[in-house]
Amino acid sequence: MIKMFIESFKNMFQKPDTIKYPFEPSPPPKGRYRGTILYEESLCIFCDKCENVCPPGAILFEIVDYETNKREYNYNPYLCIYCGACVDECPKADEGCLVQDDTTTPVLGRELPKDKKLGYLVNRVENPKELEKAWDELEKRAKKSREEYAEFKKQQRLKKQREKKAAEAKKKAEEQKENTSSTNTENKPS
């Protein structure tokens, strides 16, 4: 009890260990900080691992060109829980494709943050109040684009199979024609 009284008395004359948060900004955290996810499109191989592993579904790829498999990365920083699972899963994270920055996303207020590294959706939406609606529409479009891409790939496979069968049939017909003509030549009287 006496030790506690002595410690309390000492603390009355020391500088407080707490921060003056509302009036002064908090000091930056030490060590590995989990902040906003930033994306570098030129390094992406579009493996979709980040999208598949994201617990809240804050990352979506929308297929915009079926021929080249061109996709658009979309990230919702206000849906993200900053767990870092996407960065851990990304095979190109070491090269800087997907990184977790040491800054937080600003509060959803009058305007949305505009940065190419946040993806396409956040940069297209002007009014923050429309972000949720735009994200819902994007989810539907992304699902539809995947279904259409799967159908496109199926049609491509079927087309290749038909071309292969046609080539085989043509080759077989040519071989039969050669066999027939060589047989006719052998059977001709000299």
From TrEMBL:
Keyword Iron-sulfur attached: yes
The 4Fe-4S ferredoxin-type domain covers: 35-64, 71-103
According to the lineage, what is the superkingdom? Bacteria
Segments carrying the region annotation (Disordered) are: 150-190
Bias (Polar residues) ranges: 179-190
Q: What is the lineage of its organism?
A: Bacteria, Pseudomonadati, Campylobacterota, Epsilonproteobacteria, Nautiliales
Q: Is Cell membrane set as a keyword in this record?
A: yes
* Comp. bias intervals (Basic and acidic residues): 164-178
Q: What is this protein called?
A: 4Fe-4S dicluster domain-containing protein
- Pfam families the UniProt entry points to: Fer4_7
**Which keywords describe this protein according to UniProt?**
4Fe-4S, Cell membrane, Iron, Iron-sulfur, Membrane, Metal-binding, NAD, Quinone, Repeat, Translocase, Ubiquinone
